[in-house]
Amino acid sequence: MLKIRRSGExxxxxxxxLKSFHTFSFGEYSDPHWIDYGPLRVINxxxxxxxxxxxxxxxxxxxxxxYLLEGELEHRDSxxxxxxxxxxxxxxxxxxxxxxxxxxxxxxxAATHLLQVWIRPDAERLAPEYEQRRFxxxxxxxxxxxIAAGDGAGGALRIHQDARIYAGLFDGAERAVHEVAPGRxxxxxxxxxxxxxxxxxxxxGDGAGVPGAATLELSGGTQAEVLVFDLP
Length: 232
Hints:
CATH superfamily: Jelly Rolls
CATH class: Mainly Beta
Number of domains: 1
Largest sheet: 9 strands, mixed
Helix content: under 10%
Order of helices and strands: EEEEEEEEEEEEHEEEEEEEE
CATH architecture: Sandwich
Structural class: mainly beta
C-alpha cells in the first residue's frame, strides 16, 4: 500500500549557494508522476550556504511552512513580520492574496538546512498571515507532535486546509502509531536518520504515500526525524 519515493529519485539542483532536493515537481524540475499528493504541493529539502539566501519574491494562494533542521534562517516580509527561525522553530506563512518575502542564512560560517513545505489552501485570496512557534525536542521525542492543523488544535500552527502535520524524533525502541481515517491519505517524509514505516525501511530524504485508511507504525529509528502529513 505504500508509494515509496526514494531520496535519490528526487529532483536535485546545485546552484552553488543553494543545494535543493524536490520531492514533487517544482520550478525547473518537472516529473508528471510526482506533481503533488492531494493538497501537499511541495517538499523542498534545502541547504543554504553561509551569508546567502532568497531575495525578495512573491507568493499567493499557498500555505508555506518552514521547518529548520540545522542553522538559522532570517525572514522578512511585506506584512512587516521579521524573525530569525532556529532549529525547533516552525514558521507558517499564508500567502493568500499576495505577500513578498526574503529568506537569508544570517551566519557567516554555518550552512542552513531546512524543509520548506507548500500546501494548497481550501480557499483563494485569503488575507495573508504569518505565524511562528517552537516545538522543541522534548515535544517530539518518541512521539508524533502536532505542529500544524486546520483548527490550530493544541497550540499547533493554523493552516487554511483540512490537514494535520506531525513531527517526531525516534531512536532505538521508540515507536509511534498513527491512524489514517477512511477517506483520508497520508504522506511520511524522513527528514534525516532512518526508521521503519510498517516494516519498510526509510532513509533520510525518503518519502512514502499512504493512499487511504491505514494504521501507520513508526519504529526502529536511528536518529530519525520525520514529518507525517494527514491529508484529505
